[in-house]
Amino acid sequence: MLLLQIDFPYNGVVGKEMVEAFADLASSISKEKGLIFKIWTENEDTKEAGGIYLFEDLLSLERYLKMHTARLQSFGIRDIRSKVFEVNEALSKITKAPIF
Amino acid sequence: MLLLQIDFPYNGVVGKEMVEAFADLASSISKEKGLIFKIWTENEDTKEAGGIYLFEDLLSLERYLKMHTARLQSFGIRDIRSKVFEVNEALSKITKAPIF
């Protein structure tokens, strides 16, 4: 199980307006091959947003990251930070992670 | 619901050895006030580790972040990057996040 952590400077809409703007995109993302879930993140104070993703395998993650980075850039978003991690499942289980 | 994203350079043990080294710490973290869950992250190639946390409220998150940062520093860990986000629950629900 692999975790993809993405964040970037973001000056767009948040909250309910963000839901209206991105509901179709979210629906599309939910169907991505190998995706277990995405948590959508936003911070109006620091003007940042991003996502925490869990993927079944590295190939699916890397294909998604490449496609999604290009999509974000097409929205005018720059300085996209992405990090890939393995999940330590045993420790995460102890700390109540709902991923099993 | 608030998300805390932490990562840092890490040269210590990973995988099963990490579980043995940190099981007691994980058990302690699982009892932190306001914590919903923590996902433990590690990357042996990039020599990084971290955690993705969900908290019920900002006060609990800030208290934990202050305490945990000091604890990581006491382990000799430096360059700790932390970011706080709100979770967009409606969009996360569409992308199958198991947080509801």
Average pLDDT of chain A works out at 96
Counting structural domains of chain A, the number is: 1
Query: Approximately how much beta-strand content do the residues of chain A carry?
Result: 25-35%
Provide a count of the helices of chain A: 3
**Structural class from helices and strands of chain A?**
alpha+beta
Distance between the termini of chain A: 10 Å
Architecture of chain A, CATH level 2? Answer: 2-Layer Sandwich
Q: What is the strand tally of chain A?
A: 4
The main β sheet of chain A shows up as: 4 strands, antiparallel
What strand order characterises the main sheet of chain A? 2-3-1-4
Instruction: Give the CATH level 1 class of chain A.
Output: Alpha Beta
Report the oligomer: homodimer
Question: Low-confidence parts of chain A, pLDDT < 50 over ≥5 residues?
Answer: none
Can you tell me about this structure?
Chain A has 100 residues and is of the alpha+beta class. Chain A has a single domain (2-94), classed as Alpha-Beta Plaits. The first copy, chain A, contains 3 helices and 4 strands. In chain A, strands 2-3-1-4 form a 4-stranded antiparallel β-sheet. The longest helix of chain A has 17 residues, at 58-74. The termini of chain A are close together. Chain A binds chain B through residues 3, 5, 7, 14-16, 18-19, 22-23, 26-27, 29-30, 35-44, 46, 48-50, 52, 83-88, 90-92, 94-99, and chain B through 3, 5, 7, 14-16, 18-19, 22-23, 26-27, 29-30, 35-44, 46, 48-50, 52, 83-88, 90-92, 94-99.
